[in-house]
Amino acid sequence: MIEGEDLKPRDDAASLRKDIVEKLFFELAKFPDVATRNDYYLALAYAVRDRLLFRWINSSRTYYTGKHRSVIYLSAEYLIGPQLGASLLTLGLEESAKAALAAQGVDLADLIEHEEEPGLGNGGLGRLAACYMDSLATLDLPAVGHGLRYEFGIFDQDIRDGWQVERTDRWLRRGNPWEVRRYEIEHTVGFGGWVDHVTDEHGKYTARWIPAQIVKGVPYDTTVPGYGTQTTNFLRLWSAVADEEFDLDAFQVGEYWRAVDQKIRSENLTKVLYPNDSSPAGKQLRLEQQFFFVSCALQDCIRLLLQRAPIRDFADKFAVQLNDTHPALAVPELMRLLIDIHGLGWDEAWDQVRRCVAYTNHTLLPEALETWPLPLMQRLLPRHIEIIYEINRRFLDEVAVKWPGDHERAARMSIIGEHGDKQVRMAHLATVASHHINGVAALHSRLLKETVLRDFAELWPERFTNVTNGVTPRRFVALSNPKLTDLITDAIGDGWIKNLDKLADLEKHADDRGFQEKWRAVKHRNKVELANWLDKTYGLKFDPSALFDAQCKRIHEYKRQHLNLLHAIALFDRIRRGEDDGVTRTIVFAGKAAPAYRTAKLIIRLAHGVADAINADERARERLRVVFIPDFNVKTAQRIYPAADLSEQISTAGMEASGTGNMKFTLNGALTIGTLDGANVEIRECVGAEHFFLFGLTAEQVTERKRTGYRPYIHLAEDQELSRAIDLITSGLFSPGDRGLYAPLVDNLVHQDPFLVLADFRSYVDTQRDVGNAWQAQAGWTKSSILNSARAGKFSSDRSISEYAKTIWRVQPVKLK
Ligand code: F58
CB of 660 closer than 6 A to ligand 1? Predict the structure, then answer.
């Protein structure tokens, strides 16, 4: 008999080389002499995938027979980043791969560079899901991530004449070697139609949904290997295919187009990711996507469950986590499956839902809280809306018991919003169904209880909790910053990669001049590498000895890239006026704007306008550069964090739920300039106030300013530097030939300024002066940099996931047989 062990791929360079050539032959039908870079990339990826699959089989076997509870992570987005480098790191295959390829005359770094990433997310939320998948596997927790296999992910960003131009992301065009399509699994998902209510011969009432349209969901699996363990989980992304390839009737009467119409429409479902950040798209297709993937996910869980246990074990077997409200239709869908398909009564079904579902909120911005028009939901999901109504009816009864006669509160809490047109409030639906509701940083979780979910927190205080976000140190230090990794490992061993609190051992080296010297040298090398890459790729220049000041994230008014730009303009103005503080700076921006978000696009244009004006000024460009790095994604992010000296986390206090870029910068030794917002608060607590540049209004002060009537133009009158900066924008200096270009931006700042940019300007530029001074005292800066890394252990996603596991999911690690 052939045993698993007989099939185990060998990891030495010679075996790997043989496997690569074999893949070239038998997967790609190529021989080495004619193999392209893509062929070699694919061949290596397939060889690596074999090793991942080997580990995965072991995990699956153990899970198949086990009695444990698994995590079902539901997320509409996963920004997993390029897979080759990360897989080699996890498998410990880097050296073998390098040698195996070298023997073929191929450079591994070149193949890693060649890989395109699956951009299946917008920003922080999608990247968080990917970090969490990594930590789940690393902590030996059985988990499956379910999501959508968008054929086109987040758009690629080009810059033309300083403007963002979107290009479709054809990430699948050269093949995706990491995924495995499972042909044996498919689930049908219905849309539209009507509901039949019937009472059978035993007097049992049942509802039967007759959808008007059926789409099939097929899964594509990508392995997620744990680091320093054999555990390997997977991400299961669902793709829509037509139920029937052709409409035969139409075909037979010669209407060929109509014959394929249904197919095209079904497959459109998973075509494209909505490129919206912070505000939901509100489009029917998006609602269809959400329902489609949660329905597939839940049907899949039930399929697996019923192989070994009765339906009533659902909640014992699965902990279902809603990554924001995008998967909240899982609530009525699970109810429907349990009641209509598997015959449970309402109470039993609701008990299952309440015992397994939990909800993470990622935003307080009112425009970002998802609601769906009732008529749309009624039309698309007639059975689900009935279920939602019944959930709401029972819930409002509970509210009436606690607060008899308080109709205003009941209206506020209702799942159905009655402001203007009726809406389904997804956050209320998710909250009512969940045993735990969490925010993503301490401040955010507190504000969540005090503002958007206040009534609910009063009703069920015990359900509310906080889990501060974290990031994986594997990708964001070990993989992306190998020089720092070596330096740290030489000093304290390599235990920190799996146990990030161990970074604290670096503290004892923080005052050591020799160590500081090495630390600085690593940072400098990383900056040189970034500078070279930027020059080669985009012709962008910067001086690696400059203070590298970086703001990299989606472009949004609440994140205040324009505050950063006002500072750049103030510096430029000072230089032109003959003031020189002796600090050389490069201010780097990177980030995408939602295609329909005009102000965000104008901010990008302004960044380029400022960059050009500085460049054109001989004196200024010696001291100051503004650089906009196009197409921010996981791959470029990995180049930027290791090189940064200063991390800009300057959102209006109370508006950034957590931030995770802030953690990645800190771990890589950047100091933060930031407001008391999101996880900045906790970062500052950990690294120490003296190693963090704090400025700006607090969340409470922001609320108070708005309450008492905020008048931004007062700051213009009071602050000459600010008014000069604004004047420079309107003078046309940054928009040659077009003085009105930035008028929408400027008018908004001067008259409304909803994000209090002008209110925080003075505090920000003064704090930036402190930054400049600190930068000039090299040893002090380096010490702070070391301490920032050393004290950032808390921000590992391993810590976040252990908290979810213990307090929310009640799942235990499973050691492989
Ligand atoms: C982000 N949200 C938060 N949303 O803004 C950030 O503070 C937090 O650190 C991060 O989640 C992880 O918790 C976010 O990225 C989206 O991208 C949504 C995508 C779908 C449309 C609405 C925004």
Answer: yes
Ligand 1 mean position, distance from CA 554 (Å): 10
Note the pLDDT of residue 367.
Answer: 85
User: Is residue 362 within 6 Å of ligand 1 at its C-beta?
Assistant: yes
238 three-class SS: strand
Cβ of 142 less than 6 Å from ligand 1: no
Note the residue count of the chain.
817
pTM confidence score: 0.98
Q: Which of 120, 122, 125 to mutate to test the pocket of ligand 1 (most atoms within 8 A of CB)?
A: 125
278, 647, 655, best to mutate for ligand 1 pocket (most atoms within 8 Å of CB): 278
Decide: 674 and 650 in contact? Cβ < 8 Å. Answer: yes
Q: What is the 3-state secondary structure (H, E, C) of 9-51?
A: CCCCHHHHHHHHHHHHHHCCCCCHHHCCHHHHHHHHHHHHHHH
What is the Cα–Cα distance from 509 to 516, expressed in whole angstroms? 8
Average pLDDT over residues 363-367: 91
pLDDT at residue number 3: 72
Question: Distance from the CA of 145 to the center of ligand 1, in angstroms?
Answer: 18
Task: Give the percent of the chain with pLDDT over 70.
Answer: 99
* pLDDT given for residue 2 in this prediction: 73
Residue 297's nearest CA partner among 215, 217, 210, 180 is 217
559 as an active site residue: the answer is: yes
Task: Using the mean position of ligand 1's atoms as its centre, give its distance from the Cα of residue 591 in Å.
Answer: 14
Q: What is the DSSP string of 190-219?
A: EES-EEEEEE-TTS-EEEEEE-SEEEEEEE
Q: What confidence tens digit (pLDDT) does each residue in 371-411 have?
A: 999 999 999 999 999 999 999 999 999 999 999 999 999 99
